[in-house]
Amino acid sequence: MKVVGFLMVAAVVTMACGTSSRADRALASLIKQDTLLQTVKSMARETVRSGFNAGDGYQEVWIRDYNTFITLATELHPSTTIEENLRVFFRLQGEDGNIVDGFIPKTRARRSEGGYAYVYTVLEPNYAGHKNTVETDQESSLVQAVYKYIRKSGNHTFLQDTIGGQTVARRLEHAMEFLMAQRFNQEYGLLWGATTADWGDVQPEHPWGVYLTDSTHYAIDIYDNAMFLIALDNLVELLPDTREKWTPIRDHVAANSTRHLWDTDRQQFIPHIYLNGSPFSRDFDEAGVYYHGGTAVAIEAGLLSQEQVKHALGRMVANVQASGAASIGLTLYPPYPAGSFKNPGMHPYGYQNGGDWDWFGGRMIQQLIRHGFVAEAYEQVQPMLRRAVDHNGFYEWYTIDNQPHGSGTFRGAAGVLYDAIVLFEEFAATIH
After folding, report:
1. Pairing of the two strands 190-191 and 184-185
2. What per-residue confidence (pLDDT) applies to 15?
3. Of 150, 200, 249, 425, whose CA is between 20 and 30 Å from 140?
4. For the chain, which residues score pLDDT lower than 50?
5. What InterPro entries does the annotation carry (predicted)?
Protein backbone atom coordinates (compact mmCIF):
# COMPACT_ATOMS: atom_id res chain seq x y z
CA MET A 1 0.00 0.00 0.00
CA LYS A 2 1.54 3.29 -1.07
CA VAL A 3 1.53 5.92 1.68
CA VAL A 4 4.34 8.26 0.64
CA GLY A 5 3.06 11.78 0.98
CA PHE A 6 0.28 10.84 3.39
CA LEU A 7 1.02 13.87 5.57
CA MET A 8 0.38 16.11 2.59
CA VAL A 9 -2.90 14.31 1.92
CA ALA A 10 -3.93 14.67 5.55
CA ALA A 11 -3.06 18.36 5.52
CA VAL A 12 -5.17 18.94 2.41
CA VAL A 13 -8.09 17.10 3.98
CA THR A 14 -7.72 19.18 7.13
CA MET A 15 -7.65 22.50 5.27
CA ALA A 16 -10.56 21.55 3.03
CA CYS A 17 -12.75 20.39 5.87
CA GLY A 18 -11.66 22.88 8.51
CA THR A 19 -11.34 20.21 11.17
CA SER A 20 -8.69 17.72 12.23
CA SER A 21 -11.29 15.06 12.95
CA ARG A 22 -11.74 14.39 9.23
CA ALA A 23 -8.00 14.00 8.86
CA ASP A 24 -8.10 11.56 11.75
CA ARG A 25 -10.87 9.63 10.05
CA ALA A 26 -8.91 9.52 6.82
CA LEU A 27 -5.86 8.23 8.70
CA ALA A 28 -7.92 5.70 10.65
CA SER A 29 -9.38 4.42 7.39
CA LEU A 30 -5.89 3.98 5.92
CA ILE A 31 -4.74 2.08 8.99
CA LYS A 32 -7.75 -0.24 8.94
CA GLN A 33 -7.21 -1.05 5.26
CA ASP A 34 -3.42 -1.33 5.37
CA THR A 35 -2.61 -4.96 4.63
CA LEU A 36 1.10 -4.28 5.20
CA LEU A 37 0.42 -3.64 8.87
CA GLN A 38 -1.41 -6.95 9.19
CA THR A 39 1.26 -8.86 7.29
CA VAL A 40 4.04 -7.60 9.55
CA LYS A 41 1.89 -8.16 12.62
CA SER A 42 1.44 -11.80 11.61
CA MET A 43 5.16 -12.16 10.87
CA ALA A 44 6.01 -10.76 14.31
CA ARG A 45 3.74 -13.28 15.99
CA GLU A 46 5.40 -16.16 14.20
CA THR A 47 8.88 -14.86 15.01
CA VAL A 48 8.19 -14.51 18.73
CA ARG A 49 6.27 -17.77 18.81
CA SER A 50 9.41 -19.59 17.67
CA GLY A 51 11.61 -18.91 20.70
CA PHE A 52 13.18 -16.52 23.20
CA ASN A 53 16.80 -16.08 22.17
CA ALA A 54 17.52 -12.67 20.69
CA GLY A 55 17.73 -13.99 17.13
CA ASP A 56 19.27 -16.74 15.05
CA GLY A 57 22.71 -15.19 15.55
CA TYR A 58 22.47 -15.52 19.33
CA GLN A 59 22.15 -18.57 21.56
CA GLU A 60 21.36 -16.54 24.67
CA VAL A 61 18.14 -15.08 26.00
CA TRP A 62 19.01 -11.42 26.62
CA ILE A 63 17.07 -9.29 29.09
CA ARG A 64 17.40 -6.09 27.04
CA ASP A 65 15.78 -7.97 24.13
CA TYR A 66 13.26 -9.98 26.17
CA ASN A 67 12.04 -6.69 27.64
CA THR A 68 11.01 -5.54 24.17
CA PHE A 69 9.07 -8.62 23.07
CA ILE A 70 7.73 -9.95 26.38
CA THR A 71 4.31 -8.36 25.87
CA LEU A 72 3.82 -10.27 22.62
CA ALA A 73 5.44 -13.39 24.09
CA THR A 74 2.89 -13.32 26.91
CA GLU A 75 0.12 -13.51 24.29
CA LEU A 76 1.71 -16.49 22.59
CA HIS A 77 3.29 -18.63 25.31
CA PRO A 78 2.06 -20.10 28.60
CA SER A 79 2.53 -17.83 31.62
CA THR A 80 4.64 -20.52 33.24
CA THR A 81 7.15 -20.29 30.39
CA ILE A 82 7.34 -16.48 30.50
CA GLU A 83 7.80 -16.55 34.27
CA GLU A 84 10.45 -19.25 34.15
CA ASN A 85 12.61 -17.13 31.85
CA LEU A 86 12.30 -14.24 34.32
CA ARG A 87 13.11 -16.55 37.23
CA VAL A 88 16.36 -17.58 35.53
CA PHE A 89 17.50 -13.95 35.56
CA PHE A 90 16.63 -13.73 39.26
CA ARG A 91 18.43 -16.99 40.06
CA LEU A 92 21.53 -15.63 38.35
CA GLN A 93 21.24 -12.28 40.16
CA GLY A 94 24.43 -11.28 41.96
CA GLU A 95 24.59 -10.89 45.71
CA ASP A 96 24.99 -7.15 45.13
CA GLY A 97 21.76 -7.12 43.11
CA ASN A 98 23.25 -6.92 39.61
CA ILE A 99 21.45 -8.61 36.72
CA VAL A 100 23.17 -10.53 33.93
CA ASP A 101 22.65 -9.64 30.29
CA GLY A 102 21.56 -13.10 29.28
CA PHE A 103 21.60 -16.81 29.93
CA ILE A 104 22.49 -19.93 27.98
CA PRO A 105 22.27 -23.67 28.78
CA LYS A 106 25.34 -24.73 30.75
CA THR A 107 26.08 -27.38 28.15
CA ARG A 108 26.65 -24.64 25.58
CA ALA A 109 28.63 -22.29 27.83
CA ARG A 110 32.09 -22.93 26.54
CA ARG A 111 34.47 -20.10 27.29
CA SER A 112 36.94 -19.44 24.50
CA GLU A 113 39.96 -17.19 24.64
CA GLY A 114 38.67 -13.64 24.88
CA GLY A 115 35.07 -14.82 25.21
CA TYR A 116 32.50 -14.53 27.97
CA ALA A 117 33.39 -15.14 31.61
CA TYR A 118 30.22 -17.04 32.48
CA VAL A 119 28.28 -16.47 35.68
CA TYR A 120 27.07 -19.43 37.73
CA THR A 121 25.00 -19.55 40.91
CA VAL A 122 23.87 -22.36 43.19
CA LEU A 123 20.27 -21.30 42.59
CA GLU A 124 20.39 -21.99 38.84
CA PRO A 125 21.24 -25.60 37.94
CA ASN A 126 20.64 -25.42 34.20
CA TYR A 127 21.89 -22.08 32.88
CA ALA A 128 24.99 -19.91 32.86
CA GLY A 129 24.81 -16.14 32.62
CA HIS A 130 26.94 -13.46 31.05
CA LYS A 131 27.14 -9.72 31.67
CA ASN A 132 28.46 -7.02 29.36
CA THR A 133 29.75 -4.75 32.11
CA VAL A 134 30.05 -1.71 29.86
CA GLU A 135 26.23 -1.46 30.02
CA THR A 136 24.00 0.00 32.71
CA ASP A 137 20.62 -1.17 31.44
CA GLN A 138 20.29 -4.81 32.50
CA GLU A 139 18.68 -4.09 35.86
CA SER A 140 16.30 -1.51 34.40
CA SER A 141 15.40 -3.88 31.57
CA LEU A 142 14.43 -6.65 34.00
CA VAL A 143 12.18 -4.36 36.06
CA GLN A 144 10.50 -3.17 32.86
CA ALA A 145 10.07 -6.74 31.61
CA VAL A 146 8.41 -7.89 34.83
CA TYR A 147 6.14 -4.85 34.71
CA LYS A 148 5.09 -5.58 31.13
CA TYR A 149 4.47 -9.24 31.90
CA ILE A 150 2.29 -8.48 34.92
CA ARG A 151 0.45 -5.71 33.10
CA LYS A 152 -0.33 -8.07 30.21
CA SER A 153 -1.09 -11.20 32.25
CA GLY A 154 -2.62 -9.59 35.35
CA ASN A 155 -0.64 -12.09 37.46
CA HIS A 156 0.45 -9.90 40.40
CA THR A 157 1.08 -12.99 42.53
CA PHE A 158 4.34 -13.46 40.60
CA LEU A 159 5.79 -10.65 42.70
CA GLN A 160 5.46 -12.84 45.78
CA ASP A 161 7.21 -15.85 44.28
CA THR A 162 10.27 -16.73 46.35
CA ILE A 163 13.67 -17.34 44.79
CA GLY A 164 16.56 -18.13 47.09
CA GLY A 165 14.65 -16.88 50.11
CA GLN A 166 13.77 -13.52 48.50
CA THR A 167 10.55 -12.55 46.79
CA VAL A 168 10.54 -11.31 43.21
CA ALA A 169 9.40 -7.95 44.58
CA ARG A 170 12.43 -7.73 46.85
CA ARG A 171 14.78 -8.80 44.07
CA LEU A 172 13.42 -6.05 41.81
CA GLU A 173 14.25 -3.49 44.45
CA HIS A 174 17.66 -5.05 45.00
CA ALA A 175 18.41 -4.59 41.29
CA MET A 176 17.63 -0.88 41.57
CA GLU A 177 19.71 -0.67 44.75
CA PHE A 178 22.67 -2.12 42.84
CA LEU A 179 22.51 0.78 40.39
CA MET A 180 22.38 3.32 43.20
CA ALA A 181 25.26 1.67 45.07
CA GLN A 182 27.53 0.72 42.17
CA ARG A 183 26.64 2.92 39.18
CA PHE A 184 25.51 6.25 40.66
CA ASN A 185 27.70 9.33 40.34
CA GLN A 186 27.17 11.67 43.27
CA GLU A 187 28.54 14.78 41.54
CA TYR A 188 25.98 14.71 38.72
CA GLY A 189 23.28 12.67 40.42
CA LEU A 190 23.10 10.30 37.44
CA LEU A 191 24.04 6.74 36.49
CA TRP A 192 27.30 6.04 34.68
CA GLY A 193 28.65 3.33 32.40
CA ALA A 194 31.37 2.90 29.83
CA THR A 195 31.56 5.14 26.78
CA THR A 196 29.49 3.53 24.03
CA ALA A 197 27.64 4.70 20.93
CA ASP A 198 24.19 5.76 22.20
CA TRP A 199 22.47 2.65 23.64
CA GLY A 200 25.20 0.29 22.45
CA ASP A 201 27.32 -2.22 24.34
CA VAL A 202 30.67 -1.76 22.61
CA GLN A 203 33.31 0.58 24.08
CA PRO A 204 35.99 2.10 21.82
CA GLU A 205 39.08 0.87 23.65
CA HIS A 206 38.96 -2.88 22.91
CA PRO A 207 38.53 -5.08 19.80
CA TRP A 208 35.41 -6.67 21.35
CA GLY A 209 34.54 -3.97 23.83
CA VAL A 210 31.89 -5.44 26.13
CA TYR A 211 33.83 -5.50 29.43
CA LEU A 212 35.06 -2.67 31.61
CA THR A 213 38.87 -2.59 31.47
CA ASP A 214 41.73 -0.48 32.77
CA SER A 215 41.45 1.61 29.59
CA THR A 216 37.70 2.28 29.91
CA HIS A 217 36.55 5.89 29.71
CA TYR A 218 33.65 6.22 32.10
CA ALA A 219 30.74 8.38 31.04
CA ILE A 220 27.15 9.40 31.73
CA ASP A 221 24.57 9.28 28.94
CA ILE A 222 20.84 9.74 28.49
CA TYR A 223 19.97 6.16 27.54
CA ASP A 224 21.06 4.58 30.84
CA ASN A 225 19.32 7.22 32.89
CA ALA A 226 16.10 7.22 30.87
CA MET A 227 15.89 3.44 31.19
CA PHE A 228 16.35 3.83 34.95
CA LEU A 229 13.56 6.40 35.12
CA ILE A 230 11.14 4.12 33.26
CA ALA A 231 12.09 1.24 35.56
CA LEU A 232 11.45 3.33 38.67
CA ASP A 233 8.05 4.39 37.34
CA ASN A 234 7.26 0.73 36.72
CA LEU A 235 8.56 -0.32 40.13
CA VAL A 236 6.43 2.07 42.17
CA GLU A 237 3.36 1.10 40.15
CA LEU A 238 4.01 -2.58 40.87
CA LEU A 239 4.99 -1.93 44.49
CA PRO A 240 3.10 1.15 45.76
CA ASP A 241 4.61 0.78 49.23
CA THR A 242 8.01 1.69 47.77
CA ARG A 243 6.82 5.02 46.39
CA GLU A 244 8.15 7.09 49.27
CA LYS A 245 11.61 5.54 48.84
CA TRP A 246 11.96 5.66 45.06
CA THR A 247 9.94 8.66 43.87
CA PRO A 248 12.39 11.27 45.24
CA ILE A 249 15.25 9.40 43.54
CA ARG A 250 13.27 9.26 40.31
CA ASP A 251 12.58 13.00 40.44
CA HIS A 252 16.22 13.75 41.28
CA VAL A 253 17.52 11.72 38.32
CA ALA A 254 14.93 13.24 35.96
CA ALA A 255 15.88 16.77 36.96
CA ASN A 256 19.59 16.02 36.63
CA SER A 257 19.11 14.40 33.23
CA THR A 258 17.68 17.66 31.95
CA ARG A 259 20.14 19.85 33.84
CA HIS A 260 23.32 18.07 32.82
CA LEU A 261 22.55 16.22 29.59
CA TRP A 262 20.21 18.52 27.68
CA ASP A 263 21.90 20.97 25.30
CA THR A 264 19.47 23.88 25.09
CA ASP A 265 21.29 25.58 22.23
CA ARG A 266 21.37 22.49 20.03
CA GLN A 267 18.03 21.18 21.36
CA GLN A 268 19.37 17.68 21.89
CA PHE A 269 20.94 15.45 24.50
CA ILE A 270 24.71 15.61 24.62
CA PRO A 271 26.31 12.22 23.91
CA HIS A 272 28.42 11.94 27.07
CA ILE A 273 29.56 13.55 30.26
CA TYR A 274 33.06 12.15 30.72
CA LEU A 275 34.30 11.21 34.17
CA ASN A 276 37.91 10.42 33.23
CA GLY A 277 38.37 11.91 29.77
CA SER A 278 37.12 11.15 26.28
CA PRO A 279 38.45 8.30 24.11
CA PHE A 280 37.73 10.22 20.90
CA SER A 281 39.85 12.60 18.88
CA ARG A 282 39.66 16.26 19.87
CA ASP A 283 39.19 17.04 16.18
CA PHE A 284 35.79 15.36 16.23
CA ASP A 285 32.85 17.45 17.47
CA GLU A 286 31.08 14.75 19.45
CA ALA A 287 28.69 17.30 20.92
CA GLY A 288 27.06 17.50 17.49
CA VAL A 289 26.23 13.78 17.35
CA TYR A 290 22.49 13.16 17.66
CA TYR A 291 21.49 9.99 19.49
CA HIS A 292 18.25 8.63 18.04
CA GLY A 293 17.81 5.68 20.42
CA GLY A 294 18.57 7.52 23.63
CA THR A 295 16.23 10.31 22.58
CA ALA A 296 13.38 7.86 21.93
CA VAL A 297 13.83 6.28 25.37
CA ALA A 298 14.05 9.73 26.98
CA ILE A 299 10.68 10.56 25.41
CA GLU A 300 9.27 7.36 26.89
CA ALA A 301 10.67 8.45 30.26
CA GLY A 302 8.73 11.72 30.00
CA LEU A 303 11.74 14.00 29.70
CA LEU A 304 10.66 15.93 26.59
CA SER A 305 7.71 18.23 26.03
CA GLN A 306 5.28 17.88 23.14
CA GLU A 307 7.11 20.57 21.21
CA GLN A 308 10.47 18.93 21.91
CA VAL A 309 9.14 15.58 20.66
CA LYS A 310 8.07 17.28 17.44
CA HIS A 311 11.51 18.88 17.11
CA ALA A 312 13.20 15.52 17.79
CA LEU A 313 11.25 13.93 14.96
CA GLY A 314 12.31 16.73 12.65
CA ARG A 315 15.95 16.17 13.55
CA MET A 316 15.68 12.44 12.99
CA VAL A 317 14.05 12.87 9.60
CA ALA A 318 16.73 15.40 8.62
CA ASN A 319 19.44 12.97 9.73
CA VAL A 320 17.90 10.20 7.65
CA GLN A 321 17.90 12.45 4.60
CA ALA A 322 21.48 13.62 5.20
CA SER A 323 22.83 10.10 5.73
CA GLY A 324 20.83 8.35 3.03
CA ALA A 325 19.46 5.84 5.54
CA ALA A 326 16.03 4.29 5.14
CA SER A 327 14.41 5.01 8.51
CA ILE A 328 14.56 6.95 11.76
CA GLY A 329 15.91 3.75 13.32
CA LEU A 330 19.29 5.25 12.35
CA THR A 331 21.30 4.85 15.56
CA LEU A 332 22.98 8.23 15.49
CA TYR A 333 24.16 10.97 13.17
CA PRO A 334 26.80 11.84 12.20
CA PRO A 335 28.62 8.57 12.89
CA TYR A 336 31.90 8.41 14.77
CA PRO A 337 34.85 8.60 12.32
CA ALA A 338 36.71 5.54 11.09
CA GLY A 339 39.12 4.28 13.71
CA SER A 340 37.15 5.63 16.67
CA PHE A 341 36.39 2.07 17.81
CA LYS A 342 38.84 -0.84 17.87
CA ASN A 343 35.94 -3.19 17.16
CA PRO A 344 36.04 -3.48 13.34
CA GLY A 345 32.26 -3.74 13.11
CA MET A 346 31.92 -0.21 14.50
CA HIS A 347 32.97 1.54 11.32
CA PRO A 348 30.93 4.58 10.19
CA TYR A 349 27.33 3.44 9.56
CA GLY A 350 28.20 -0.02 10.85
CA TYR A 351 26.43 -1.86 13.66
CA GLN A 352 25.77 0.59 16.53
CA ASN A 353 27.75 3.41 14.91
CA GLY A 354 25.02 4.58 12.57
CA GLY A 355 23.36 1.30 11.66
CA ASP A 356 19.59 1.47 11.11
CA TRP A 357 17.74 -0.53 13.80
CA ASP A 358 14.00 -1.20 13.87
CA TRP A 359 14.60 -2.24 17.49
CA PHE A 360 14.85 1.42 18.44
CA GLY A 361 13.09 3.00 15.49
CA GLY A 362 9.97 1.07 16.50
CA ARG A 363 10.17 2.58 19.99
CA MET A 364 10.22 6.06 18.50
CA ILE A 365 7.15 5.17 16.43
CA GLN A 366 5.37 4.13 19.63
CA GLN A 367 6.23 7.40 21.33
CA LEU A 368 5.07 9.46 18.36
CA ILE A 369 1.69 7.71 18.52
CA ARG A 370 1.43 8.21 22.28
CA HIS A 371 2.22 11.91 21.88
CA GLY A 372 -0.44 12.42 19.22
CA PHE A 373 1.80 12.42 16.15
CA VAL A 374 -0.01 9.46 14.62
CA ALA A 375 0.13 10.61 11.01
CA GLU A 376 3.85 11.26 11.31
CA ALA A 377 4.37 7.88 12.95
CA TYR A 378 2.42 6.17 10.18
CA GLU A 379 4.61 7.76 7.54
CA GLN A 380 7.87 6.95 9.32
CA VAL A 381 7.04 3.32 10.08
CA GLN A 382 6.52 2.42 6.42
CA PRO A 383 10.17 1.67 5.51
CA MET A 384 10.48 -0.54 8.61
CA LEU A 385 7.40 -2.54 7.64
CA ARG A 386 8.32 -2.77 3.98
CA ARG A 387 11.80 -4.15 4.55
CA ALA A 388 10.51 -6.79 6.94
CA VAL A 389 8.32 -8.08 4.11
CA ASP A 390 10.94 -7.58 1.40
CA HIS A 391 13.52 -9.58 3.35
CA ASN A 392 11.01 -12.04 4.81
CA GLY A 393 11.95 -11.41 8.41
CA PHE A 394 13.19 -9.07 11.11
CA TYR A 395 16.89 -8.39 10.86
CA GLU A 396 19.08 -6.96 13.57
CA TRP A 397 20.10 -3.85 11.64
CA TYR A 398 20.34 -2.38 8.16
CA THR A 399 23.01 -0.45 6.30
CA ILE A 400 22.32 3.05 5.01
CA ASP A 401 21.47 1.49 1.63
CA ASN A 402 18.85 -0.61 3.47
CA GLN A 403 20.58 -3.98 3.27
CA PRO A 404 19.97 -6.40 6.17
CA HIS A 405 22.78 -7.37 8.53
CA GLY A 406 23.25 -9.26 11.75
CA SER A 407 20.89 -11.76 13.26
CA GLY A 408 17.74 -12.71 11.39
CA THR A 409 14.53 -13.41 13.31
CA PHE A 410 15.55 -10.55 15.60
CA ARG A 411 12.80 -10.77 18.18
CA GLY A 412 13.36 -7.35 19.70
CA ALA A 413 12.55 -5.73 16.36
CA ALA A 414 9.52 -7.96 15.93
CA GLY A 415 8.30 -7.03 19.40
CA VAL A 416 8.57 -3.26 19.10
CA LEU A 417 6.98 -3.19 15.64
CA TYR A 418 4.15 -5.42 16.83
CA ASP A 419 3.50 -3.10 19.78
CA ALA A 420 3.54 -0.10 17.42
CA ILE A 421 1.00 -1.77 15.12
CA VAL A 422 -1.26 -2.44 18.10
CA LEU A 423 -1.09 1.26 18.98
CA PHE A 424 -2.05 2.19 15.41
CA GLU A 425 -5.01 -0.17 15.64
CA GLU A 426 -6.07 1.24 18.98
CA PHE A 427 -5.99 4.76 17.53
CA ALA A 428 -8.04 3.71 14.52
CA ALA A 429 -10.60 1.99 16.74
CA THR A 430 -11.27 5.24 18.63
CA ILE A 431 -12.00 7.25 15.48
CA HIS A 432 -15.60 7.18 14.25
Report:
1. antiparallel
2. 34
3. 425
4. 1-19
5. 6-hairpin_glycosidase_sf, 6hp_glycosidase-like_sf
